[in-house]
Amino acid sequence: MSDGIDNFQDPLIPSDNQEAEGELVPQEIIPANSSLPPQLTIMPLQGKPIFPGIILPIMIGNKSDVEIIKHTEAQGGFIGLILTKEQNTEITGLQQLHSVGTVAKIYKTVVMEDGSMNLFITSLKRFKPIKALSQGVPLVAAVEYLDEYPGADPDEIKGMTRSIFSELRSLSDNSPFFTEQMRLEMFSIDQPGRVADLVSSILNTDRQNQQEILETLNIHDRLEKALMLIKREQELTRIQKRVSKEINERVEKIQRQHFLREELKFIKAELGESTDGKSADYKRFRQAIDALHLTGEAKEQVERELEKFEMLEPSSADYGVCRNYLETIINLPWHNSSREKIDLKHSQELLDDEHYGLEDVKERIIEYLAVRKLRSNTKGGIICLVGPPGVGKTSIGKSIAQALGRKFFRFSVGGMRDEAEIKGHRRTYVSAMPGKIIQSLKITKTRNPVFMIDEIDKLSNSYQGDPSSALLEVLDPQQNDSFRDNFLDLPFDLSQIFFVATANTTDTIPGPLLDRMEVIRISGYTEHEKMEIAKRYIIPKSLKEHGLTPEQVQYEDKAILGIANGYAREAGMRNFEKITNRIHRKIAKRLAMGEESVLPIIVKEDMLEGFLKKAPFRNDEQLRITEPGMTMGLAWTALGGDTLMIEAMALPSSKGPSLQLTGQMGDVMKESANIAYSYAQVVAPKFGAPKDFFEKHHVHLHIPAGATPKDGPSAGITMTTALVSLATGKKCPQHWAMTGELSLSGNVLPIGGLKEKSLAAQRAQITNIIIPKANADDLKEFGEAVTSRISYHPVERIEEVLELMFDNQL
User: What DSSP character marks residue 776?
Assistant: First the structure.
């Protein structure tokens, strides 16, 4: 069946070469119902309905529609035009068409060269198809012609007609759509029904509204609907005029400003006047921003800010903020990157040259660089170096930057309590500034530096925000490719930055922040490593800083070991460096005053006390076990490992067993002491203690250095051993130490920080350490430098500990 036609000239719009188009049909030529055929060939309309009383052209291109026209001309030239219910559908019957259409008379046909037709028709009257008389093409139907009726008082209809004319006159004056011919023909109509039809066909409304008006036979209701359409068209016309006016005003303002600026530049150039500071800044900003080749949101924001800068007066409060913002924009490395070249052999040599020892740490770094090289990954990394002060965390970060061929920048976040230090201040604040990250990028002028975030375990928080939460966005690989600083308010890619964080302990680092970093632990140095570091790095550096030379001052190995053991007995080398500086200051004074004449000055072990006075760390009675009830333990602190002497004393008591704890123990350590006390009462008789010892004595357990807070479960077996030693009267052997958590059932549980504790034991001349058996595998990672001078005794039960201490006196 036919697809229908939808390409016809709008009514009343005259064509350039057709004089008859767009004319109204005179009322006297519209035939009566008796003169119209009782059946019509139906032509479906896909676009909009055609109203009666109009002469208009229709273009026919579809072959089936051409056949319909030929059939119609053979039957007298009358055709029924009905709108389809749905657009672009295949028409198979009357059920797909609306119930009312318009009968038209074809009075002229023009056949084109390509077989299509141009028709000129006169639409005559409304009709309703009653019954289909044929199937296929063409569709023929029996029809009933419809007559309109007033539906209201003639005066009311006349008043509504005048209202429509009045509104049409206003609409036609403001709309270019209405031609002069259309105005003349509209206002010459004297029939209300035709006025409504004409208005409905002219106005730009949807097909359903037009079909509804076509189906309305009540002239009053039809006029009312037409009036509503005019009102809606008037509102649309007003909106269109307002929008056009606003756009024109905006364009004219921009053009006027542009012309005035150009004229001002020309006048200044003609007068030979130098531009002011603002003009020079604007020109500099303009050139720099054009060279950045920004895109998207960044380009739009910066262009707006530059336009704002141009409009502001230098005396304005916003001028400085705007200028600072643009300065930040043009100084950021939007596209500048350091070329990364990873040479693993060179990196290994670099680490070996600058860092003695720390073999496990250097191996981890080389492995990390190897993975980056194989993946050809341009993304940054996030590692966290954890260790005591003075072990070389910062210098390792610098070595990583050198190995990668990148720039290095360090800033500390210790004590930071304002998140604006990380993410910047909003520009609504006076003297607003970007955060540390953006400021650092301005300084390095590269988008892929190595950033060292120092003291990340010492972040604080306050009412001003939580900096650790702000760092989550910086260190999260899934977010930092679009980091948004509050001051910048633009996404900036931080994903190529290699972040190296440092910390003394992971305990105070928030869990989500720690989860985003790969932790590399640096435990500390052995005596041998300290001596080599002192010879290779610290002493030569200190001599140079104090104006001395190696030919003037030399050290014996025993003197270096004496400094390490007596004056700088910590995990790192920071205090060692301070001690050597003190020695060199005294030597420099002697040389400057002429008190020394024999060179070189050889620093010997017996000279240290003369330079430095009495050593704070001595292998004297404070580290010796002199009586029962004393046991040497090992502890881990943020400053490294340390020895811990446990002392127990028994006082006669008639009130039953009781325990007193002193030495600033924390809650966890107090719980361990209570477990040790309970289990000691059970196990002590097995090793020769009187069964009623604890019943008749009040026990006092103390840890010296009472001003220092202590906590943790790893002293459990040490306290148990001290209590059993007290009860049995057996003294623990010298040069033995132990560490391990005790359960209530007597099991020895694993502990942490064993390497740091081992280094502390080595510094204290400990030769035997009792450790939990679960920690025995950790010894494989320590290296020979740590384990060669110490014998380790893994145990699973507290009874094994007591047997080693009392049945095998060494």
Answer: G
528: which residues sit within 8 A by CB, 6+ positions away? 785
Residue 761 pLDDT > 60, yes or no?
Answer: yes
480/435 Cα distance (integer angstroms):
14
The pLDDT tens digits for 461-479 are 766 677 888 888 888 878 8
Mean pLDDT, residues 676-691 taken together: 91
Residue 129: beta bridge partners? 143
Catalytic residue among 125, 225, 362, 757: 757
Q: Which two tokens stand for residue 419?
A: 């998140």
Distance between CA 182 and CA 97 in Å, rounded?
Answer: 31
Q: Do 7 and 61 contact (CB within 8 A), yes or no?
A: yes
Q: Distances from the Cα of 579 to the Cαs of 559, 573, 604, 606, in angstroms?
A: 12, 10, 14, 15
Beta strands in 480-600 (DSSP E): 483-484, 491-492, 498-503, 518-521, 553-555
| C-alpha span between 609 and 537 (Å, rounded) | 23
- Give the side-chain half-sphere CA count within 13 A for 479: 12
What are the C-alpha distances in Å from 526 to residues 463, 529, 539, 571? Answer: 44, 5, 18, 8
The one catalytic residue among 714, 725, 755, 758: 714
Residues 6+ apart with CB under 8 A from 77: 105, 106, 107
Dist. CA 693–CA 304, nearest whole Å: 86
* Residue 684 one-letter amino acid: A
Tell me how far apart the alpha carbons of residues 138 and 91 are, in angstroms, rounded to a whole number.
11
757 in catalytic set: yes
pTM listed for this prediction: 0.58
Decide: 726 and 699 in contact? Cβ < 8 Å. yes
Structure tokens at 167: 């509104």
Q: Which of 581, 571, 701 is nearest to 631 (CA)?
A: 701
How far is the CA of 719 from the CAs of 27, 465, 688, 737, 739, in angstroms? 121, 43, 18, 12, 10
Distance between CA atoms of 502 and 456, rounded to whole angstroms?
6
Bridge partners of residue 792, in order along the sequence: 769
